Prior knowledge:
Blueprint: E1 2-3, E2 6-8, H1 9-18, H2 29-33, H3 37-40, H4 42-58, E3 65-70, H5 76-82, E4 90-94, E5 107-110, E6 117-124, E7 133-138, E8 141-147, E9 153-155, H6 161-170, E10 179-182, H7 184-195, E11 197-206, E12 220-223, E13 226-228, E14 237-239, H8 244-251, E15 256-259, H9 260-266, H10 280-297, E16 306-312
Parallel strand pairs: 3-4, 3-6, 4-5, 6-11
Antiparallel strand pairs: 1-2, 2-8, 7-8, 7-10, 8-9, 11-16, 12-13, 12-14, 15-16
Helix pairs in contact: 4-5, 7-8
Amino acid sequence: MRDNGWQSWRVAMQDALYGPAGFYRSSGAPGRHFRTSAHTSPAWAAAIRRLAQTVDDDLRRPADFTLVDMGAGGGELLTALAVAVPQRWRLIGVDVAPRPAQLPSRVEWSDAIPTAFAGVLIAVEWLDVVPVECVELTDAGARLIEVNEQGEERIGRPPEPADVRWLDSWWPLAEVGDRAEIGRPRDEAWTAAVRHLRRGLAVAVDYAADPRRDVAGTLTGYREGRQVLPVPDGSMDLTAHVFFESLIAGSGREGRLVTQRDALQDLGVTGTRPSYEGDPPAYVAALSEAGAEAELLARGGLGDHRWLMIERSGGEER
């Protein structure tokens, strides 16, 4: 809803990220402004390949095995997988941005998730850019925060009843001035995405919100490698942490929730410092690889991301 340039944060995020001139409408936008796990180390793609191979084996290697990268960005993960996985696997990137120019020809690109596939759905830092409403507790109760294109804010109307119920259940505001992001649109987006998976594993990887810690909310911006104040003008990424517990409840399915550090260590990523074997160039290369792996596992960084893993069997209702 607009009011002379003022709009709720959910509307502002939608326009700034996905509108005609939105941040994510340009090819490769994420890689130019911030680093994800896919940009950090080849060990990331190798770990995802091992995970997907396990799922493929569990499904008895179906001819139509498909790996879907939701919010594929510049296609970094799929580019690495294209030379490392069986040719019978379908690799599909889903994103609103144009197909990256250097993407391998075997990788498909779409703006919509395929229907009823068997395999792996992976969504890395996708849910944190699904637009959400931001609210602040006032003396009169929770109120939406409205914003203009310059990033100035004001207090607006009360949230919708469904959003109030979400807040009461998952992120109750305790003191006047406390803020929160309402994760209901993310719950709905995740549930809808998982329904497309007929059999296999759905994995969401993202920053995790903690209402006890995040009393000022988590909404922020990233531009040219730096964290900046969020301004909905299309020049930056706008992101807010994800409340994973509501994702699980909203999907109606049991899920396994672990840190990225634990998930990647289970998949063979160690970040262990190599021993010196008398070959200086090889040692320097191995040391660099170990450092990149350690960044994937780092406490206070990528290692604290949460992985939500939900298994789907063919007998479940859609």
